[in-house]
Automatic annotation (TrEMBL):
Any one GO cellular component localisation term in the record: organelle subcompartment
Subcellular location, record wording: Cytoplasmic vesicle, Clathrin-coated vesicle membrane; Golgi apparatus
Entry annotated with the keyword Magnesium: no
Protein name stated in the entry: Putative adaptor complexes medium subunit family
Organism name: Amblyomma triste
InterPro entries assigned: Adaptor_comp_med_subunit, AP2_Mu_C_sf, Clathrin_mu, Clathrin_mu_CS, MHD
Domain of life where this protein originates: Eukaryota
One Pfam match: Adap_comp_sub
Function per UniProt: Subunit of clathrin-associated adaptor protein complex 1 that plays a role in protein sorting in the trans-Golgi network (TGN) and endosomes. The AP complexes mediate the recruitment of clathrin to membranes and the recognition of sorting signals within the cytosolic tails of transmembrane cargo molecules.
GO terms, biological process: intracellular protein transport; vesicle-mediated transport
Length: 249
């Protein structure tokens, strides 16, 4: 399962909008054409089979690959299919759920006598220590006429991207429960620039392997074949950013 987190939060830390868009991708190398069955912790299924109190998720906007037998799913929520060879997307879904920001960014912007501006940015990972976010990219908007950039950071590297009017702070590996700091300093040739421009939100990109924020679980992946068919199913969870934006003051 691959999960993308869409999130918009204000500068005070309140989440204004959040949803999870997920998909289950498969890579199949099986001889013959065996039928497979996938079991998820699907709320509708759990309630219909009297397991309502178990941890389950309410899947919305479910879309399946053409190999899935839709009539079976509509009848008893069984996901049954004869997979094509190789890699394909078995299904996609959406969850309307409240997500707390997995990576939170605080920024303080100080202007000095209309000639320079300083950014102090704190990045904080708000997931468990045993998980690690990879290839984190924090995109901080700056005025379009900013020049002579200088950076200091406790981790990762920082570069000015004038084509995006932004500073990009890249952190290759960001463990859970950590906090990092970055300072950026720019000259500002014009007086008015940002007062009239308004401020775009900070954007964050990341990928957290072996981590699910949606609560979706693959309960089983079975091969329905009479002749003692041997195979090893392997499941990996990944959570990544979707449209992930944090407003600044």
């Amino acid at each position: 399962p691959l999960v993308s987190v869409n999130l918009l939060a204000n500068a005070g830390g309140s989440v204004l909008r959040s949803e999870i868009v997920g998909c289950i991708k498969m890579r199949v190398y099986l001889s013959g054409m065996p039928e497979l069955r996938l079991g998820l912790n699907d709320k509708v299924l759990f309630e219909s089979t009297g397991r309502g109190k178990s941890k389950s998720v309410e899947l919305e906007d479910v879309k399946f690959h053409q190999c899935v037998r839709l009539s079976r799913f509509e009848n008893d929520r069984t996901i049954s299919f004869i997979p094509p060879d190789g890699e394909f997307e078995l299904m996609s879904y959406r969850l309307n759920t409240h997500v707390k920001p997995l990576i939170w960014i605080e920024s303080v912007i100080e202007r000095h006598a209309h000639s320079r501006v300083e950014y102090m940015v704190k990045a904080k990972s708000q997931f468990k220590r045993r998980s690690t976010a990879n290839n984190v990219e924090i995109v901080i908007p700056v005025p379009h006429d900013a020049d002579t950039p200088k950076f200091k950071t406790t981790v990762g590297n920082v570069k000015y991207a004038p084509e995006q009017n932004a500073v990009v702070w890249s952190i290759k590996s960001f463990p859970g429960g950590k906090e990092y700091l970055m300072r950026a300093h720019f000259g500002l040739p014009s007086v008015e620039s940002e007062e009239t421009e308004g401020r775009a939100p900070i954007q964050v990109k990341f990928e957290i392997p072996y981590f699910t924020t949606s609560g979706i679980q693959v309960r089983y992946l079975k091969i329905i074949e009479k002749s003692g068919y041997q195979a090893l199913p392997w499941v990996r969870y990944i959570t990544q950013n979707g449209d992930y934006q944090l407003r600044t003051n």
